Amino acid sequence: MGQQVNDQPGKEAARTEGRSAAAEEDTNKPLYGVTDVPPWYLCIILAFQHYLTAFGAIVAIPLILSEGLCLQHDRLTQGSLINSIFFVSGLCTLLQVTFGIRLPILQGGTFAVVTPTVAILSTPEWKCPAWTQNASLVNTSSPEFKDVWTTRLTALQGSIMVASVFQILLGFSGLIGFLMRFIGPLTIAPTIALIGLSLYDAAGAKAGTHWGIATIICVYIGYRLYFMVTWKHSHGIFYIDKILLGILVSWFICYILTISDVLPSNPSQYGYLARTDVSNAIRDASWFTVPYPGQWGVPTVNLAAVLGLTAGIMCSILESVGDYYACARLSGAPPPPSHAISRGIGVEGLGSLIAGAFGTGNGTTSFSENVAALGITKVASRAVILLSGVFMVLMGMLGKFGAIFTTIPAPVIGGMFLVMFGVIGAAGISNLQATDMHSSRNIFVFGFSMFSALVIPNWIQKNPQFLNTGVKEVDQVLHVLLTTNMFIGGFFGFLLDNTAPGTKRERGLFAWSKVDPEDSNTLESEEVYDLPFGITAFLSSYSWVRYIPFCPWRGHSSQHKSEDKDFVLPWVYYASFHLK
What we know:
two-stranded antiparallel ribbon; mainly alpha; 26 helices
């Protein structure tokens, strides 16, 4: 009898724990699944929310590239680039959600391609003429100036289009699954971290135009972080807009300081670039514009640029695959099967091809920020993301919309870069959570990869004459690759991790055992990944379809279930889910 009495508290605690776990599981389930359609007003609000979440990263890319393209004093063309990248991001989102992975994932520009692009544009052959750095000498309407930047942009266009073919083939051929078996956390951690860390020069140059203004956005975001952290579940919409609201607050302060003449009006004085009236881009921009392929001229191809951009696209692929798994979990969908991942990567390759053709100067990738937003809003409907894609297409057609964002003061952009690039660097390093960092092997692999990726590019840039093989094209290729930080870090990480002895658990490849893919609050069946308009039902009548890597087949789940689980190194799923 005494024993039974003593057991009562333990049983009650177990029941309480079970109820708590069940309640937590219910809380984690999305309110609207992938195939659900929320009320029209909620669709509009959340679609605009996703658009705002991606805003900062999409706008930042043309602003970074404008320096290397010699466009820092041509705000009107910068606005056109912003319009183009929003327009293409919307098209790629519609394409991905309809025919690609079919999960609620937003598409946009990728910083993985920005890094090699900056390295390409910094080579001696691509450096901007000295006169383009002086605003008083630049006539933006002159044929000479136009030839300077269109030559660089069209070469970038063609090179991105050629590099995107690699991604298309890798996706639609199904080879992505094979390659992912050799890529672990110790490869991807330095690669992604160096995307953010390698852009410190651009962040410093912008922030240095007025450190006081640049600090405002950092302080504001820090305040929001501390203040909203306890309210993020009930005020999620405001919580995930820290960067955008930080930009608006800093921008407004610059406007007040401009109209009150606190900021200097002399272009040669420190702080002048913090003014909001240094450009007439809004007045000169047209109300409506429709970006189109080849709008800057006929694309050309540069071998060195193709190889450098291919390295960036490979990194983008790794990020996207992780996003697919994280998005599936947050959406209540089953883990994506191999045909869906192959199709998703292939469609992203098509998106990069489209981006190159339209002349955005960048490719396309899945946005992790928007995947994280799914966990906050609890709305995983792809109808919302489709509407968000429509918003981006429409915004990309408003000429004055793009021009508005070219008037963001330089120090505000610098403050935004300090936050965004720092987060990217930290996100890359966080992939190491799946590895055993008490291991001297792993510490050496990661440390050597990171430090080499900082030392080698810096030395090559200071000693460009060292690369002199006698063949100009070879010299260009070596210069681009050896000055691309993430390529060096990823190369050493891949080489050392796959050759140095180490267990799967030590390398982080066994971390998937701690995450059960079946335990995902699944609300949908695998049919969520089927092609639309009855295409899957039509193809299922042909047995040969099962041999096409990107086509769904009705017998796919039962016959290839084990293959799908091993499609991608599970650490990618593990790390991406915890990054939210």
